[in-house]
Specification:
The chain is an alpha+beta fold and 95 residues long. Helices cover 38% and strands 22% of the residues. Strands 2-3-4 form a three-stranded antiparallel sheet, covered by helices on one side. A two-stranded antiparallel ribbon has the order 1-5. A hairpin with a 4-residue loop joins strand 2 and strand 3. The radius of gyration is 13 Å and the shape is globular. It starts with 12 loop residues before the first strand and ends with a strand. The model has no long low-confidence stretch (mean pLDDT 93).
Length: 95
């Protein structure tokens, strides 16, 4: 999936309609289910995706995660991860 411009901290994101985020007991991990398969997420990826899709902007999600993990330098790393997720079609910008 091609994107015209990179994501910004002001963007709000949601899961793409073809992707379903959930806890998979058999995997003991969060996963993204989609028609072609499954992506097993590590704890960090799951926390970022879950928080980013629940907040009104990527910046708010990054601030919440920074407070949760007592780190002030997470905004750029979170934005880069979400840009990869966006490019892979896992998430989209809320309209």
């Amino acid at each position: 999936m091609e994107q015209a411009e990179p994501l910004s901290l002001a963007d709000a994101v949601e899961f793409s309609p073809t992707h379903h985020f959930r806890w998979e007991e058999a995997q003991q991990a969060h996963v993204l289910l989609y028609p072609e398969g499954i992506v097993k997420l590590n704890e960090t990826a799951a926390a970022i995706l879950e928080t980013a899709t629940a907040q009104s902007s990527i910046g708010e999600a990054a601030t919440e995660l920074a407070a949760r993990y007592q780190r002030n330098d997470l905004h750029e790393q979170i934005l880069k991860f979400l840009e990869v997720a966006y490019a892979k079609g896992w998430i989209r910008i809320k309209s």
